[in-house]
Amino acid sequence: MVSGLFLSLLVLPVVFCTPGQYPLQQVLSKYFDVQAHRGGRGNTVESILPAFAWALIDGATTLELDNGITKDGEVIVWHDENIIAEKCQDTGPAFKDDPEFPYVGKFVANLTLAQLQTLDCGSKRQINFPLQSVYPGVRISTLKELFSFAECADPDFRILWNIESKVNPVSPNRTRSPEDFVTKQHQIFVNSPYRHSITYQSFDWRTLVTMKALDPSIPTAALIDLESTETDDNGTSPWLAGIRLDSFKGDLSVQVASAAHAIDADILSPADVASFVVDPTLPEYVPFTTRSTVEHAHDLGMLVKPWTVNRLSIAEQLLDWNVDGIITDYPNMMRRLVQQRNRPVAPKYPKKRVLECLNRHLKKATP
């Protein structure tokens, strides 16, 4: 049943929304956008339902996640192109004498949903995230399953979503095509109660262009880092949909904003760092997102939400430059910093209700 709050948001005059911004997004834009990267992988094993549950409890404004597409065309919540042993472990074949078993090491695009959902992807704590909570036995979810959990935990439909297509233009045989991603993701988006609160993001800007052509109303976020700006012999990057950065004025920090604007992106999401040294207090530190990046993007009418910001020293710098949001593995800590800076933050979700919904949905997913 749709709540009264959600109905009231839907009838807000569209004229008051900025381009690409729905009423719900407008209402929640009064809060600084703390985005839980992969559900907040600093706190919970990434990309599984418990990660997103704890992100809500910790007060994230937006749930950030990635989609892959399986061999049989299902849209799943998973970051990597393949299943790596550091994150998942096999439990057994989907059916007797399955020639594809074991599945660890295989590409998502070459496995069916049934095969992928035999994997235990909740038991392994990542070496770089020693505070991760583990959830042994938890499986990979489909996007529909995540939305179903969210509807239970969020009856007022307040969650914002930042959903990425994991397309690889350099090795296209590793993932499904941009057209497959846009078609299949869009179908789920528009049939979800969250259709008005989804941002679509990608490093492969072909998917952003394709999504805009299909549905101009969905806000898009152009992801970019130093690697994706590297050009081939023709002076273009395979990641940027044929856009030449050197066709725009200014240095790289300004060019990336101009390039994102050229594909009608609503949001620029640049990497926070362009060097192996990752602390602004050290002399070798080189930021990728600069004050010039933020100012130029704002001048062009775009929001700026850098990723993946896990150092408060970098976050403080970005807040000084008036970014509109921050994608982080630690939404709880970032929310605290934003509050200390007297920026408004979104309300947290009731822990009891969220965990009850989580347990209900985990039981459904138990093989």
What does this structure look like?
This protein has helices at residues 4-10, 23-28, 49-57, 113-116, 143-153, 178-190, 205-214, 252-262, 291-299, 312-320, 331-340, 351-365, and strands at 33-37, 62-69, 75-77, 160-165, 198-202, 220-224, 267-270, 303-304, 325-328. It has 367 residues and is α/β, with parallel strands linked by helices. The two termini are 29 Å apart. The chain has a single domain (28-80, 142-365), classed as TIM Barrel (Alpha-Beta Barrel), CATH 3.20.20.190. Strands 1, 2, 3, 4, 5, 6, 7, 8 and 9 form a nine-stranded mixed beta sheet that branches.
Quick tags:
9 strands; disordered N terminus; alpha/beta; 367 residues; 12 helices; 9-stranded mixed beta sheet; TIM Barrel
Task: Report strand %.
Answer: 5-15%
User: How many β strands by DSSP?
Assistant: 9
The residue fraction in helices comes out at 25-40%
How many individual helices?
A: 12
Distance between the termini: 29 Å
SSE order in H/E notation?
A: HHEHEEHHEHEHEHEHEHEHH
Rounded average pLDDT = 92
GO biological process, one term: lipid metabolic process
Keywords: Signal
Protein name: PLC-like phosphodiesterase
Signal peptide: 1-17
